[in-house]
Write a structure and sequence with these properties.
Arc Repressor Mutant, subunit A, 4-stranded parallel β-sheet, 16 strands, 356 residues, Rossmann fold, 11 helices, alpha/beta
């Protein structure tokens, strides 16, 4: 198979970067396009490949900055796990799982929970910490921070999907794939009015990515109704979010006949529905970690935070071994569960590598 032109150009640019042909940043896209006698659009795609490889970072007016090769840093055996929210985390399955994995390897986890998101822009804070690297969870990294960490040779992994222009190693659940499966199942059962209770997401670009994809999926099945798509309130608990969303849906003039619930406790929905004078019993479809709500009676699309923690730690170790390797982006598969039994395992290969 003949490779696309932009792939050939990306490989040539990579070779130039490796021999220090360019300093600090790439020339402007139009200049590069002239140098290689191609259209600017072709060159833009070639540079995008370099971003995915982790070789450059697009920084707006500053241009496409080159990422420095990893510097040699003394090993301390301490791994930072960072999230920037201030709620209770003692029972968090992902954080607990990561700490367990790190300790099993004879290393020391340092859990950092800072509610101030401006810390993302304090370069001195991240560079001065004498750690072997960072694992960022729950949407707590910015493109600027990712660039600074690479420039200073600090290994890091992000435990959620990042935009390609971050040039970050990341791993995540495929929430879009899960929602597509859930909608498909409910439509096949005859539902034409489906509510969607979206997960709590602090990362604005990811929240937009998920919202846009959910909208497109519902439109694809010709059942999109913006009134039936609800985002969670970041300032209240899962229990209160579930109660508020349940009240919202059942008080609509035309309540949905089915509701997809992401990470919220289904039993709280059922409790609220039972208080209604006029019976309301929509079909519920749960998406989330089954261990969080083990008594779920409704059909579910489930994943495991314990497995997720293991995969994140595996990816981090790979980055530690060779932080100059091309960046890796992974999705984790999921299970379709009914009556507490797994009826189907979903493992896909595109567009990102899926892990079991």
């Amino acid at each position: 198979m003949i490779k696309p032109k932009y792939i050939d150009i990306a490989e040539m640019l990579k070779e130039r970067i490796e021999v220090a042909y360019y300093q600090k940043r790439l020339p402007a896209i139009r200049q590069l396009a002239d140098d290689f006698s191609v259209a600017p659009a072709t060159m833009q795609r070639a540079v995008r490949e370099l971003v995915i490889m982790g070789l450059v970072t697009p920084m707006g007016p500053k241009g496409n900055l080159l990422n420095a090769k990893s510097n040699s840093r003394p090993k301390t055996g301490i791994i930072g796990i960072f999230c920037n929210f201030s709620g209770r985390i003692d029972n968090d399955p992902l954080l607990n799982g990561l700490q367990k994995m790190i300790k099993q390897e004879g290393k020391h986890p340092l859990l950092m929970t800072l509610p101030n998101q401006m810390i993302n822009h304090d370069d001195k804070f991240w560079i001065s910490n004498w750690l072997d690297g960072y694992i960022f969870v729950y949407s707590t990294i910015s493109k600027e921070l990712a660039y600074e960490l690479r420039q200073n040779g600090i290994p890091f992994v992000v435990a959620n999907r990042c935009p390609e222009n971050f040039g970050a190693n990341w791993i995540d659940f495929d929430k879009v794939g899960m929602f597509r499966d859930a909608v498909s199942q409910l439509v096949n059962q005859g539902h034409k009015s489906i509510g969607v209770s979206l997960p709590l997401i602090r990362f604005k670009s990811y929240r937009k990515y998920l919202n846009d994809n959910i909208r497109d999926i519902l439109k694809e099945f010709n059942i999109y109704n913006p009134k039936l798509v609800k985002n969670q309130n970041v300032n209240i608990s899962n229990k209160k979010n579930a109660q508020q969303n349940a009240k919202y849906y059942m008080n609509l003039e035309n309540p949905p006949t089915a509701i997809i619930i992401d990470t919220l406790p289904p039993n709280e929905f059922l409790t609220e529905f039972s208080k209604r004078k006029i019976p309301y019993t929509p079909e519920l479809m749960y998406i989330g970690d089954k261990s969080l709500f083990p008594l779920i009676e409704c059909p579910a699309i489930t994943f495991s935070y314990q497995s997720f923690a293991e995969q994140v730690w595996t990816l981090f170790k790979q980055v530690m071994e060779n932080s100059n390797a091309p960046t890796k982006q992974y999705f984790i598969g999921w299970n379709i569960t009914k009556n507490h039994k797994i009826t189907k395992k979903i493992i896909k290969k595109e567009p990102y590598l899926y892990l079991t």
